[in-house]
Amino acid sequence: MAVYKRGDVYWYNFSFAGKHYQESTKSKSKTLAKEAEKKRRRELEEAFNNTADTRKARVQSISTLAETYLEDYKVRHRAGTFALRG
Predict the structure, then answer these.
(1) Which domain range does residue 20 map to?
(2) How many distinct structural domains can be found in the chain?
(3) 16 secondary structure, DSSP code
(4) In angstroms, how far is the first alpha carbon of the chain from the final one?
(5) Distance of alpha carbon 34 from alpha carbon 4, whole angstroms
(6) Of the candidates 2, 77, 79, which has an alpha carbon nearest to the alpha carbon of residue 37?
(7) What is the Cα–Cα distance from 22 to 38, expressed in whole angstroms?
(8) Which own/partner contact pairs does 5-8 have at CB distance under 8 Å and 24+ positions apart?
(9) How many C-beta atoms lie closer than 10 Å to residue 30's C-beta?
(10) What confidence tens digit (pLDDT) does each residue in 13-50 have?
(11) pTM
């Protein structure tokens, strides 16, 4: 882990999965800069390994599911298609 100071602000510099990352932490604190680097590295690892927490996206209310189902149903089962079959 490489945290260094440019002017009054700390930056981090590291490589992950063959790509170079050099970004500002926008912090004047070295401790916060180290934590920002750890957090960024963790974000990259989760995205790379597809281990991000997606539970909130999977958990939906019954009303939301019902609305989605009814919208899809209307598109797939139009009233006009029954009239043509006669």
Answers:
(1) 2-85
(2) 1
(3) E
(4) 72
(5) 10
(6) 2
(7) 13
(8) 5/30
(9) 13
(10) 999 999 999 999 999 999 999 999 999 999 999 888 88
(11) 0.58
